[in-house]
Amino acid sequence: MLDFRIFVFMKIQSKNLEQVVESFADLPGIGKKSALRLALHLLSDQGDKIENFRNALALLKHIQRCEVCYNISDHNLCAICQDRNRKSSVVCVVENIEDVMAIEETGQYRGTYHVLGGVISPIEGIGPEDLQIDGLIERVALGKVEEIIMAISPTIDGETTIYYITRKLDKYPVTVSQIARGVAFGGELQYTDEITLGRSILARVPYLINGGSTDSNG
Known about the structure:
There is one protein chain. The protein has helices at 4-7, 15-25, 32-44, 49-58, 79-82, 97-106, 133-141, 156-168, 194-202; strands at residues 64-65, 72-73, 87-94, 111-115, 147-150, 175-178, 205-206, 208-209, 212-213. The chain is of the alpha/beta class. It folds into two domains: 13-61, Helicase, Ruva Protein, domain 3 (Orthogonal Bundle); 85-213, Dna Topoisomerase Vi A Subunit, Chain: A, domain 2 (3-Layer(aba) Sandwich). It has a five-stranded mixed sheet.
């Protein structure tokens, strides 16, 4: 039996297989060795695995963004926004879809979400106009939101984003809070364990600017 460790350094004799390997290797966290292993596994399968895999990938074209919170959805509104048991007056602001999944995994939060699509990062050329910040302001302007929870990773860019959004919300009668510091500074929310993340949501504190509360009600 040919040693796989040797085979990965050999030139792939099939252009089709090489293209499959390159496609897998383009995915985050998958190197050339893992990509080749996946491709060979599918190639050697005698059942319906390749066809099922192809059909599953085709479904990605039908996944869209919720028109309210920008979470992933199969319809115009995601399952969370449609859930009447969720507290729509409380909106948890997160960077990405993975953060929604991480918070939902804790089972400690029953409000709704708003997915920004990243954070403000001048170094990477990402400004407020590149994020879904205007959509959040529009939701608050409707007058049905009572609290905004900033569940953004505690990095310098994250803190900049929180500050910017809070300033934009300053004229509205909405409470702005921030998850408790159970999440270490510099850490990413999606990689925080669910117990710590859940406690951070429950123990959220008012967000302060220059020592004063952002709550325009007092």
